[in-house]
Write a structure and sequence with these properties.
1 helix; 10-stranded mixed sheet; mainly beta; globular
């Protein structure tokens, strides 16, 4: 049996644009994708801290070091520029993989610039920096 666990998240980022007339997805600064381990076209869950909306879309890369976090297509109706978001990816792990697994958490400032990358110990809840 496999279990679904958090693989990575970009925590408390700021939406920089909402583009209704663009094919769907969320554009994410390439540096944040790289640091989080979220892949282009990977399914992500987006949680809007500002208004409580939760939805699923897929990630696409934005220009590195641009600070861009942009909702595209229909998802652009679920947030406005300046909203705070959490972007998360999940994966299927076997019971054997779980004890050695640790999710990646990317912390950004209010301009979506990388502040810190954390790895959480899945079983003990300890932060390893």
């Amino acid at each position: 049996m496999q279990r679904t666990l958090l693989l990575a998240k970009i925590h408390n980022c700021t939406l920089t644009e909402a583009n209704l007339n663009y094919m769907g997805s969320i554009s994410i600064d390439q540096i944040l994708l790289d640091k989080s381990g979220i892949l282009p076209y990977e399914q992500v869950q987006v949680v809007n801290i500002t208004n409580g909306e939760r939805f699923v879309t897929y990630a696409i890369p934005a220009i590195a070091d641009s600070g861009a976090i942009e909702l595209n297509g229909a998802a652009a109706r679920l947030a406005i520029k300046g909203d705070r978001l959490i972007i998360m990816s999940y994966g299927q792990l076997t019971p054997e993989e779980i004890p050695s697994f640790s999710p990646t958490v990317v912390i950004v400032d209010d301009k979506n610039k990388l502040l810190e990358v954390r790895h959480y110990d899945d079983l003990l809840g300890k932060t390893i920096i």
